[in-house]
Specification:
With about 575 residues, the protein is α+β, with helices and mostly antiparallel strands. Helix content is about 55%, strand content about 15%. A hairpin with a 4-residue loop joins β3 and β4. Pfam families: FTCD, FTCD_C, FTCD_N.
């Protein structure tokens, strides 16, 4: 199950007074579920870039509080710095990380912008993908004239998207803010087997979207070609949404192509890597590896790993850790120094910061021992989800074995898709292992609520019903996910490597046990619901799934037994 995550990268007009900066970052860290990733102050620019991440609603709340605090502790009337700016919070972009589309991120940004304008009374311009007009996609247009030019712009009729179009005593302190939605920017450097900055620049100009100036005759020393307006004519590079230059890194003793990928949808990082390799090779150079600067979304490495696996005609339906390893090795991310995904990938950093123990992190032996103890959880619901995950894992295993079977190379893409489907189901069901125990713990927490007064009794009863409903819905989700396993194992029993047909059969047995085990949990938890209409509907839906699972199991076992003979 993909967690919804967005990143927020507000820039505040204070880079020298760490006490002021800390007041702002403290309110960010005060929002539960938000992780502060980086605070980067600059004295010369008098500006601090703050990076935090979390689920959308929590990030929006943290961003609003940060903007509010900045408006209280920063006075733009006294601000000076080298970087362009127009407000205490100069820009506040939202970036989709996982489980969130750009369209959704735009709506989040506009909602945040409206709240800042209406509740804080700060003029707000929406920019990048959140812009309401094409010209305001460009931040420079929104920030024209900077802070000092705001009063004249408003007097000339320019209106922000939200908030007042006036500079008074309050807005003179706060200035204006730009709120936007944009793609994640990836900073990546490509290592070359040369010390020549000029040659590195040549490769950079080959690939960057802007390209290079067109010249007459010699492409380096020739006269620059100009258009009818006297402006230089440019030859575009091959990569959309990419900026690049060449430089020499004394620390490593090599030249690099330093690139910012500003649109990872138009140009994924692995595509950029291959293109730089090709252009370098054409100039007699070789890319020896690359280094990623800063943090990245997991998608960057997963997409890269799957891309290189597909080029090798290998299955992409393997564990996530293995896919990431392929990406790291394929792009030489560990060329200059060790590359640890747990320290570079945003989702992994968030996972590691969650210190709550998880059942799925236990060893097989530890999981069995924990189940055997006198505590009621983990119980049948978690065990059912785990059996379902094993069924999906067996289906993925048969698909992977089939994709690598000698003489079946032409069928690799088909089996790879089945293996990927199996991996997705496996991870979904592994998530439900802990979710089922968490649902039980909700009931226990509700039971421990006070019940002395009528109000407390009413609140406790409502909490009990809410927790019981959730504890009924979670095993129903396990049933639905486990039922999908049958499509996988049936295909593998029919079309997969015949030497592994018994494994497909065991997968069907595991999936059927998962469905029926979770069905028992649906029934026992639904019995505690006062809303009998809802309870009966949930049990009825679950009964149909159980019936279908038993039929599907028989169908798969018939295929398996026929092949075994």
């Amino acid at each position: 199950m993909t967690r919804k995550l967005i990143e927020c990268v507000p820039n505040f007009s204070e880079g020298r007074d760490m006490q002021i900066i800390k007041q702002i970052t403290d309110v960010v860290e005060g929002v539960e579920g938000v992780r502060l990733l980086d605070v980067d102050p600059g004295a010369a620019t008098n500006r601090t870039v703050v990076t935090f991440v979390g689920e959308p609603d929590k990030v929006m709340e943290a961003a609003f509080r940060a903007v509010k605090k900045a408006s209280e502790v920063i006075d733009m009337r006294h601000h000076h710095g080298e970087h362009p700016r127009m407000g205490a919070t100069d820009v506040c972009p939202l970036v989709p990380i996982s489980g969130v589309t750009m369209e959704e991120c735009v709506e989040y940004a506009r909602t945040l912008a409206r709240r800042i304008g209406e509740e804080l009374g700060i003029p707000v311009f929406c920019y990048e993908s959140a812009a309401y007009s094409e010209e305001r996609r460009n931040l420079a247009v929104c920030r024209a004239g900077e802070y000092e030019g705001l009063a004249k712009r408003f007097a000339d009729g320019v209106k922000p998207d939200f908030g007042p179009a006036v500079i008074d005593d309050y807005t003179a302190r706060t200035g204006a803010t730009a709120v936007g939605a944009r793609d994640f920017l990836i900073a990546i450097n490509y290592n070359l087997n040369t010390t020549s900055t000029r040659r590195a620049n040549s490769v950079a100009f080959d690939v960057r979207e802007k390209g290079r100036k067109k010249r007459e005759g010699d492409p380096i020393t020739g006269k620059v070609v100009k258009d009818e307006n006297g402006e230089p004519v440019w030859i575009p590079g091959t990569l959309k949404g990419c900026k690049a230059i060449g430089w020499y890194i004394e620390e490593y003793g090599i030249a690099q192509v330093s690139m910012n990928v500003t649109d990872i949808n138009a140009t994924p990082v692995h595509v950029a890597f291959d293109e730089v390799c090709e252009k370098a090779h054409a100039r007699g150079l070789r890319v020896t590896g690359s280094e990623i600067v800063g943090l990245i979304p997991k998608k960057v490495l997963i997409d890269a790993g799957k891309y290189y696996l597909a080029k090798q005609n290998r299955s992409c339906g393997i564990p996530e850790e293995d896919i990431v390893k392929i990406a790291v090795k394929s792009m030489g991310l560990d060329d200059l120094r060790p590359f640890n995904p747990r320290e570079k990938v945003i989702e992994y950093i968030l996972e590691d910061s969650d210190k709550s123990p998880k059942l799925v992190d236990l060893t097989v032996r530890g999981f069995a021992e924990e189940t055997s103890r006198e505590s009621p959880a983990p119980g049948g619901g978690s065990i059912s989800a785990y059996m379902g995950s094993l069924g999906a894992a067996l289906g993925a295993m048969v698909a992977n074995l089939s994709s690598h079977k000698r003489g079946w190379d032409d069928q690799c893409p088909k089996f790879s898709k089945w293996a990927e489907a199996g991996q997705d189901l496996m991870y979904e069901l592994l998530h439900l292992v802990d979710e089922d125990t968490a649902a039980f713990n909700r009931i226990m927490a509700a039971m421990s609520l006070p019940k002395k007064t009528d109000a407390e009794k009413e609140a406790r009863a409502a909490a009990m019903q809410e927790a019981t409903l959730y504890a009924t819905e979670v095993p129903l989700r396990t049933m639905k996910a486990s039922l999908k396993v049958f499509g996988l194992v049936e295909a593998m029993a029919s079309e997969g490597n015949p030497n592994s047909v018994s494994d497909a059969g065991v997968g069907a047995l595991a999936a059927r046990s998962a469905v029926l085990g979770a069905f028992l949990n649906v029934r026992i938890n639904a019995a505690g619901l006062k809303d009998r209409e809802k309870a009966d509907a949930l049990v009825s839906e679950a009964a149909e799934i159980a019936k279908e699972a038993e039929a599907q199991e028989r169908k798969v076992l018939e295929i398996v037994n026929a092949k075994i003979g």
